């Protein structure tokens, strides 16, 4: 049978992002555009991005997964490129399943293969048009994440009548600035209740742990920004108390401090970046 007609990029870009997920180690270098105007969103050593896209009353699942690949964007679209010896798969699952696999050899030369419903097809004009549409939808997702709509990693599910959701997430994120480490963050949230981007409780068996280290090249304003040659590490652990509330333990470079003021401001930034809207 003839393959389904490829969607045009204009139609493909009208989807609505409804969720997001990322696993694996994520490196986010400086967000300063390069000479060609591309902003590096993230480099994944081994990971996956995924989100739901609704178009014309149908739900599609879009996924980007692989090893050693870079995700970049500019004003109108995105591009995904494997690093030497890396690979990446762009996959859309719905009424029709399409995927493009891109592999790079040791010299960075790329080869592409295209599949429709599991059958390999030539990487032709149809495949190129589908890839362009996919990358435009990915660009929309990246803009949604930057504006605070969706974050990479984890999910908030099970919304209650008062807007309370259960947050489960695991992140290991490294930020770079001009090619040097700027900060790294580890976050584990299990059965954490959030409402309005505030932690309002932890269910039995749940936990929340955050650890962030700022390196000398950290570029953003911060009251605990380290000096040359130094680092600053914040840790936060939240646990359920007997009455069902949440107790907080906050430390800076191993020394316990009150969880107030700059500590709450710092944690508020973490919540805004890593939680999802329901």
What brief labels describe this structure?
278 residues, mainly beta, 16-stranded mixed sheet
In short:
The chain has 278 residues and is mainly β. It has helices spanning 9-12, 125-146, 262-274, and strands at 16-17, 21-23, 26-28, 39-55, 58-73, 78-93, 98-104, 110-116, 119-121, 155-157, 165-177, 180-195, 198-214, 232-240, 246-252, 255-257.
Number of strands: 16
User: How far apart are the first and last residues' alpha carbons, in Å?
Assistant: 41 Å
Sketch the major β-sheet: 16 strands, mixed
Oligomer state of the chains in this structure: single chain
Rg, rounded, reads 21 Å
β-sheet strand percentage: over 45%
**How much helicity do the residues have?**
10-25%
* Overall 3D shape: globular
Mean pLDDT across all amino acids: 79
Structural class by helix and strand composition: mainly beta
Ranges with pLDDT <50 over ≥5 residues? Answer: 1-23, 146-154
Individual helix count: 3
**H and E order:** HEEEEEEEEEHEEEEEEEH
How would you describe what is shown here?
By secondary structure, the chain is mainly beta. It is 14% helix and 51% strand. It is built from three helices and 16 strands. The chain has helices at 9-12, 125-146, 262-274; strands at residues 16-17, 21-23, 26-28, 39-55, 58-73, 78-93, 98-104, 110-116, 119-121, 155-157, 165-177, 180-195, 198-214, 232-240, 246-252, 255-257. The protein is globular.
């Amino acid at each position: 049978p003839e393959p389904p007609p490829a969607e045009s990029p204009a139609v493909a870009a009208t989807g609505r992002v409804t969720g997001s997920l990322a696993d694996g180690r994520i490196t986010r270098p400086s967000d300063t555009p390069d000479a060609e105007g591309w902003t590096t969103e993230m480099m994944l050593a081994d990971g996956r991005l995924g989100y739901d896209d609704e178009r014309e009353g149908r739900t599609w699942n879009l996924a980007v997964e692989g090893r050693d690949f870079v995700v970049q964007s500019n004003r109108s679209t995105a591009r995904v490129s494997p690093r030497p010896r890396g690979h990446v798969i762009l996959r859309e699952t719905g009424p029709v399943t399409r995927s493009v696999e891109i592999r790079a050899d040791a010299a960075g030369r790329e080869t592409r293969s295209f599949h429709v419903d599991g059958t390999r097809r030539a990487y032709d004009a149809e495949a190129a048009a589908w890839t362009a549409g996919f990358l435009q939808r990915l660009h929309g997702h990246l803009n949604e994440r930057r504006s605070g709509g969706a974050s990479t990693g984890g999910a908030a599910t099970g919304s209650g009548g008062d807007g309370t959701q259960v947050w489960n997430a695991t992140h290991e994120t490294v930020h770079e600035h001009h090619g040097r480490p700027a900060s790294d963050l580890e976050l584990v949230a299990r059965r954490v209740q959030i409402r309005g981007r505030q932690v309002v409780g932890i269910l039995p068996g749940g936990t929340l742990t955050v650890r962030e280290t700022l390196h000398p090249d950290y570029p953003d304003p911060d009251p605990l920004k380290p000096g040359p040659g130094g680092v600053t590490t914040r840790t936060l652990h939240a646990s359920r108390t007997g009455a069902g509330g949440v107790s907080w333990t906050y430390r800076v470079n191993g020394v316990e401090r009150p969880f107030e003021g700059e500590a709450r401001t710092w944690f508020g930034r973490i919540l805004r970046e890593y939680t999802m809207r329901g």
